[in-house]
Amino acid sequence: MTPIKTNIVLIGMPGSGKSTTGVILAKGLGKEYIDTDILIQHEQQRTLQEIIDTDGHMALRDIEENVLLRVTCKNHVIATGGSAAYSHPAMTHLKKEGVTVFLHADLNALKSRIHNYETRGLAKRPDQSFQDLFDERSELYDKYADITVKSSLLTQDQVSDEVIQAIGSDQL
Description:
Elements: E1 7-11, H1 18-29, E2 32-35, H2 36-44, H3 48-55, H4 57-69, E3 76-79, H5 88-97, E4 98-104, H6 107-113, H7 130-144, E5 147-150, H8 156-167
Parallel strand pairs: 1-3, 1-4, 2-3, 4-5
Helix pairs in contact: 1-8, 2-4, 3-4, 4-5
């Protein structure tokens, strides 16, 4: 018998709805909520963009990996940063206790939601376009996803409902 994973781990691009959907899911399912971007900012005492501006995007990825590897919990909804999927050790760690859900928003939806691409604190190469980042990360999200929910045309409440339906009540 496979042990039941009690966490829901949300992965996806910035703007895909991880943070908002995470709060809605946690409230609706009676689970605790963790936003790993907030954990990083709290630990570092600076914003994600300040980390990138000072130390570079690879430093942010390293910090993120270290923070994710220390997340140990049950019965939580965990909204990860968009770059979490770059870390195989971190994703493997999160998947031990969690069902990984890729909130897949298409490029046009993301562009309409993200207006601060250059100052949002994204762990990306300085010369990397949003299209290139999307293409690069989409492969990683697909690799780690247990479930994919297409979120482009849905409200956050609808995305939450889709996640719950896809996971199934026996798993929650």
